[in-house]
Design brief:
Elements (H helix, E strand, L loop, with lengths): L8 H7 L13 H11 L12 E5 L2 H18 L1 H5 L9 H16 L5 E8 L11 H13 L3 E2 L9 H7 L5 E10 L13 H4 L10 H4 L5 H4 L4
Antiparallel strand pairs: 1-2, 2-4, 3-4
Helix pairs in contact: 2-6, 3-5
This protein binds flavin mononucleotide.
Flavin mononucleotide (FMN) binds next to helix 5.
């Protein structure tokens, strides 16, 4: 049964952005459970469902993630880490996005829940193909319930993370997902137009119907 405030599937798809600033409010267990009950409805190769999720709520563990993310930030964005004011010259969308990444780098310890997404290592012919459908289900369900998140991998490549969370060697970590009630807003998404990525019969051959469509009009139909 649809919940009050649930935007519905298409509005959710057309407006779920990667948001990285959160209120300190905790996420009630029944809300979090609903998010994961939606996540595990995703498809996976051979229906193996080998996704595993570790919910990080302990302050000490989140502080460690923040320490690692802060160490990674200058390697990821050397120019802007050295002089954050250089971000001011970026085009608006890029500027807002990069500032939100920088904010999360320095505040991940304050995020209510950080989900660590794991799965069997070396098991699938398309690595990640059996994990990221669940991640997307999770993010869309979270948005429908008033939450937000983003894939955030700046603290991912630390072998210590496996040890800290007692993740077995059989598993690899696919991504981290900070989750909480956002202070930023969801909204229209900037994506390449369908006509530039969908072809007819041969790679690169235009799909005439798509060629005739406006670049943004279809998402506007669904956004209030
Ligand atoms: C595989 C993957 C890795 C990503 N890694 C990061 C990351 O390390 N840090 C981050 O802030 N966002 C990360 N993102 C989020 C993307 O930057 C974001 O989805 C994209 O810029 C679109 O943003 P929008 O949905 O707000 O338009 C990642 C997304 C995916 C799917």
């Amino acid at each position: 049964m649809p919940q009050p405030g649930d935007p519905g599937l298409f509005e959710t798809i057309y407006s779920t952005r990667a948001l990285r600033r959160f209120k300190p409010d905790p996420i009630p267990d029944e809300v979090l459970f609903q998010v994961f009950d939606a996540a595990v409805r995703a498809p996976s190769g051979g229906n193996v469902q080998d996704w595993r999720f570790v919910l990080i709520t302990e302050p000490a563990t989140k502080a460690k993630l923040q320490e690692w993310a802060t160490e990674s930030w200058p390697r990821y964005q050397p120019k802007y880490a050295a002089d954050p004011s250089l971000m001011d010259a970026l085009p608006r969308t890029q500027r807002l996005s990069l500032r939100s990444v920088e904010h999360l780098v320095h505040h991940i310890a304050d995020v209510p829940v950080v989900v660590v997404v794991c799965g069997l290592a070396g098991k699938h012919s398309t690595p990640g193909g059996s994990i990221f459908p669940a991640v997307q289900n999770l993010l869309l369900a979270a948005r429908s319930l008033g939450l937000a998140g983003a894939v955030f991998n700046l603290a991912l490549r630390r072998p210590e993370l496996h040890e800290l969370l007692a993740i077995p060697e059989t598993n690899q970590i696919y991504c981290l997902l900070p989750l909480g009630y956002p202070t930023d807003k969801h909204g229209p998404l900037r994506r390449k137009a369908v006509k530039s990525v969908v072809f007819m019969d041969r790679f690169g051959e235009p799909w005439p119907f798509a060629e005739r469509q406006p670049d943004e009009g279809w998402q506007a139909k669904w956004l209030k």
